[in-house]
Amino acid sequence: MSVTQSTLKPPASMSGSAAAANAAAASFAALTEKLSYLNPEGLDMVRRAYRYADEAHLGQLRNSGEPYITHPIAVAAQCAEWKLDAQALSAALLHDAMEDCGITKTDLIERFGIQVAELVDGLTKLDKLEFNTREESQAESFRKMLLAMARDVRVILIKLADRSHNMRTMGDMPRAKWGRISNETLEIYAPIAHRLGLNQTYRELQELAFQHLWPWRHQVLSKAIQKARHRRRDLMQKVEQEVGAALAKVGLKVRISGREKTLYSIYKKMDEKVLSFAQVTDIYGFRLILPNVIDCYTAMGVLHQMYKPVPGKFKDHIAIAKLNGYQSLHTTIVGPSGLNVEFQMRTESMNLVAETGVAAHWLYKDNGSSNEANLGNKWLQSLLDIQDETRDATEFWDHVKVDLFPDAVYVFTPKSKIMAMPRGATIVDFAYAVHSDVGDRTMAAKVNGEQVPLRTELRNGDIIEVITSTVASPNPAWLGFVRTGRARSKIRHYLKTMAHSESQDLGDKLLAQALRAEGIEQMPAREGEYAGLWDKLLHFTGSKTQAELLTDIGLGKRVASIVAKRLASLLSDTGLKPDALLLSRERFTAHENVSQGSVTVDGSENASVKYATCCFPVPGDAIVGYLGRGEGLVVHTDHCGVAQRLKYKDSERFIAVEWSDEPARNFEVAAVVTVSNGKGVLARVASAITGAEADITHVLMAEEVTGQEAFDLRFVFSVRDKAHLDVVLSNLRRVPAVLQAQRVVSGVGR
């Protein structure tokens, strides 16, 4: 494909074009010097990609005035530092070609093959598609990028190299863009880099984002660090010399390098713990690179003999690697003048993984020592699993974001297998991490041999035993406390599937009931002689299948009576006339909740039936059912004011509903209790409710009751039925401080 000027962005400026071209050529020459690890065929592919990209971006300039091609070259140079292959380097050079230059995926396939084209496509934003909001567009772009990354991790490596160079050159961008891009970098790209073990990139992205988000704070901290560095230089040199001499004395070969907390990590610690700069004591540290693992532990023993270790600051990430594959021994000692100094001990290969994470696979795959299994592959695979259950981009991104936090806890299965979980993860998260079937069938759990609630947060060293049952299923309440994206997406997928199944069953009942009101005793068979009739009905409703039609009726998206009238009309055309006796009987009993076609509810329904919180119906109340649009069946008390208004506006959506003889659970009800002001009154009232075997789920009281003689307490508690409610109210009225206790049917401001 020849790229014409019409497909390009207008050049920002053409001044100094010759010098700019020379600069671009020179930078590509610098890139080729880093490609000695490629074979001749790979080197040729990279050169062809450069020439093609150079032609595509011809005339385009960056905000700095440099030719645009200098940006793809810089991205490729970073990828070369990670020793990525020729396909990835070619994709790095071409990563903006599809988005900015009108080049198609087909063009790239013809010239560079399907792999390079797929990499470039995974990197291309979706600017050309229409979205309702910027957030929706951004979420879709990230979903596409992350899924491409899950299939081929080179996508995110190129993307992180691209973001790193953009952050380094942000000073040339309009200042109005700094905040948005820096926030995006801090919230998304830096956590992804950390999740994949790219610590060097992670730290650089955080620093650059901090510098551009809060330049004044960055500058103040930078000056403070410089002063502290100057004051403590002699102390740090003394520690380094003492440690080097002590390790040499025991025959350890070691490479010692000083390290310093980044400005952003210092700022974050000061902000989170409300500390002054002088109170941050662990700014300085050393990294000890040793020949093997045994030497790491020996060096730590030597350190602890020389200096006093700080309690609680020893971490063994060699025995138990971090989620992203990071391995190292950490200890903090009290050095000269009471200065806290952190030491990290690791081998050369561990150091390589610590700095480059998943990229270490390319850096040293030739010697077969890849640590790839520990480098986030499970997380990458989980992205594909989440996508299988979540097609909405914003929901997908919500799931993924919760997995991008670096903190982890390490727990054990009953067979002593170590599992790393995000901090704050619960028993249910653990169950889904073991297997989705285990999560779906979780009924109870034991931690360290003792039974605990499923919402219990995991702690380091816990031994977790999950108890499953074939009749157990995910509970919607789990969504309120699960921590991982995998667990959240699995639960939502199960509930959605069940909701559709239940809604279909409800729709079947409602259509049969509405058909009886039209004088038709039986629903026509869906196969055989009536198959053509159903096809006509589906054409009338616009539904694709019978299941979809019934689900829509159950969800309230379609009115059963209208569908039934059409179905009765079609049946009439075939010669099946309404039963006059049935028609008369149904119409005369339509106002009665006990009519033969009513829907029976018992509380075991999940998403297909909801119980209104404006009136809190309980067994024993006269009830009606309202088919809300897309909400399924909503049950109200017959005298509910909200239901009365809905019936006036939308009477055709009301259906007959009755309670089952044996409800499957307790139901929430609201009550207002007027009490005289006094010490301990809330405790006495709550005790009266629980004493009547009712569980309190919500309490609301006025914020300021000082000086008032009486005030209202509003409760929501669960009861078996109306008779049980009467017992609770009677119990309340016997409390001396209670002036009045009555049921509320208009909500309690939850």
How many H/I helices? 28
CATH superfamily of the largest domain: Hypothetical protein af1432
Kindly give the count of domains: 4
Please tell me what the overall shape is: globular
Average pLDDT taken over every residue: 77
The level-1 CATH class of the largest domain: Mainly Alpha
Rounded to the nearest angstrom, the distance between the terminal CA atoms is 63 Å
The structural class is alpha+beta
Strand coverage percent? 15-25%
Q: Please estimate the helix content.
A: 40-55%
CATH fold group of the largest domain: Hypothetical protein af1432
Radius of gyration: 34 Å
**Biggest sheet character:** 6 strands, mixed
* E-strand count: 20
Uncertain regions: pLDDT < 50 for 5+ in a row? 1-22, 126-133, 364-376, 590-597
**Name of the CATH architecture of the largest domain:** Orthogonal Bundle
Short summary:
With 750 residues, the chain is an alpha+beta fold. The chain has 4 domains: 5-215, Hypothetical protein af1432 (Orthogonal Bundle); 216-372, Beta Polymerase, domain 2 (2-Layer Sandwich); 494-659, no CATH class; 667-744, Alpha-Beta Plaits (2-Layer Sandwich).
